[in-house]
Each structure stands twice: as structure tokens, then as C-alpha cells.
Amino acid sequence: MAIRFYRSFRLGFLRVISAVAFLCIVLYFVVNGGILYAKSMQYTLDKNFATKLNVSAEDKNAEVIGGYAKYRVSLYVASQDDINTIKHKQQEITTIIEDSVSKFSASQLQAHSDRRMLEAEITKNINEKLGKSFIKATFFVNMVVVPDMNYKP
User: Fold this and answer.
1) How many C-beta neighbours within 10 Å does residue 111 have?
2) Dihedral sign (CA 22, 23, 29, 30)
3) Rounded to whole angstroms, how far apart are CA atoms 76 and 143?
4) Strands (E), 19-153
5) pLDDT surpasses 60 at 44
6) Are 29 and 77 within 8 A, CB to CB?
7) Segment 64-74 mean pLDDT
């Protein structure tokens, strides 16, 4: 009887320990990977961007073509030194952001996945241009896309 109780207690205890270990592993990945860059610092550029968008080949026969995008940009970096670098090179960074956004059309920027792709491209372009990969991520803040309308009589 005591042996049977011991075995059932031991199996229950191992199940609890396994569940706790699993939860700890899941929590570790959520904190370090799921909540994006929890250990980084955010710096939002002071400029309110307004960029003329590209007219793509597929847009030429559509009702919505080209347009403008109004937005702000937040950059995620590792340290205060990186924020100081951004402040000193803000003109270059602004040019890179505007050039990258102007390559996209209004219909492309309507899709969430295309915006994420553009954010990744901006991060890559800034890091390449400055020769140092100190920007971890780029995010649009309050992006509004205003397409031009193409009326056909």
C-alpha cells in the first residue's frame, strides 16, 4: 500500500514538475522572442513624414493609383549610444526612410504584410548605409495611406 502511494505520488510530482518546466520554457520564448525586443530602447523620430508613393504597373488600370503616405517612424536600438548616433545622423536616416517608402504603392501599403516587409527593408537599408547594425527593428507609428483616385469616363 505504501509502495503504491509512493509510486502515484512520484508520478504526480513528475507531471507537475514537467508542466512547470514547460511553462518556464514557453515564458522564456515569449519574453525574449514574442514581445519584440523587450531589452531594447525605442526612439521615435521627431519628423512627421509625408511621402509620395509609387504608381506600380498593376495600379495603372485600377481605380486607386499612387497616393501619399503620412507616418512617423520608431527605431528600436540596444543602447543610449545608438540613440545618440541616430540623432547625429538623422538627416541620412530620414532620406533612407523616404526613399524606401516611395518605392511602394498605396495598394501595397494597404496590406499589413507589405508594411512589415517595408519596415524590415528600412532596417536593413539604414544598417547597411551607416555600416553598423545597431537598429534592431523599425516600426511605423500612425501610418495613413491616402491613395489617388483614377477616374475613367
Assistant:
1) 10
2) positive
3) 17
4) 41-44, 49-52, 64-77, 135-149
5) yes
6) no
7) 83
- The grid coordinates listed for 21 are 518546466
All three cell numbers of 40: 531594447
Largest Cα–Cα distance in the chain? 91
Which residues fall within 8 angstroms of residue 5, CB to CB, at 6 or more apart?
Answer: none
* CB-count exposure of residue 114 (10 Å: 0-12, 13-18, 19+): middle
Higher pLDDT, 14 or 99: 99
Find cell 489617388 and name the residue: 148
Output the nine-digit C-alpha cell for 104.
511602394
Per-residue pLDDT of 83-140, as tens digits, reads 888 889 999 999 999 999 998 888 788 888 888 999 999 999 999 988 888 889 999 9
Do 41 and 78 contact (CB within 8 A), yes or no? Answer: yes
d(CA 13, CA 78): 41
